């Protein structure tokens, strides 16, 4: 497993590269539009993801093999610990099948948004793939557009021998603000309102997944997704190969996508719990 400090060194090189004046080959608007369009047009996705996420004061890493389809949404994940997850839209009463690869070695049915499946990770399985970046760059009516407008094309780099555009946001205005709901709201709903991600709201306010915040309780909520964001976009696929986010405490999360295969058919059998290669 890559040590977090090696990851930080690699990200530092990206920051240095993005500091140079980029050639006039693509505008920020074109880059954001092409990135958004490529994600919206995804029908299938295979990839391996190396995730680094800050939990408390510790950076933890997980490597995951992913297979995804969209419309219907179907998700298969297997991480480096041998834990397998399968979720298929319209099946298993909305629950995911989970093989924990530990005692008692039986497949469980778990709520994909429940506390057990969200433990020690920033995002739920329904955001697998590019759900994070979609949330970062989209504009919602209830959000300030200031953060989204902070992104700019910042030059080129190479990731896994593939040429990439660098899309960078510097947002020094990042801070925690007070928010008091007028009616009961979930942390997920509040996160969607601010575009900040749910995990930091839970962590900062000592809340649990699925908990409802009562009307009148004042929370500390980030006013944007990050203080600095670096996205390396594959120039051919127009999909991210690296997404790294910093906040007021340093690196918050980073996702590195490898062996990306988009819009190639995936046999339906690979989204069955009886598939021969799975332990589900």
Structural class, judged by helices and strands?
Answer: alpha+beta
Backbone CA Rg: 19 Å
Count of DSSP helices?
A: 7
* Strand content range: 25-35%
Which sheet architecture does the biggest sheet show? 11 strands, antiparallel
Averaged pLDDT: 89
* Spatial shape: globular
SSE pattern, N- to C-terminal:
HHEEEEEEHHHEEEHHEEEE
Q: Write down the CATH class of the domain at 4-33 and 40-142 and 249-271.
A: Mainly Beta
Second-tier CATH architecture of the domain at 4-33 and 40-142 and 249-271:
Clam
Number of strands: 13
| Poorly predicted runs of 5 or more residues | none
The level of helicity is 10-25%
Under CATH, the topology of the domain at 4-33 and 40-142 and 249-271 can be stated as outer membrane lipoprotein receptor (LolB), chain A
Distance between the termini: 25 Å
How do the strands of the widest beta sheet line up side by side? 6-5-4-3-2-1-13-12-11-8-7
Protein name: DUF1571 domain-containing protein
Keywords: Signal
InterPro entries: DUF1571
Signal peptide: 1-21
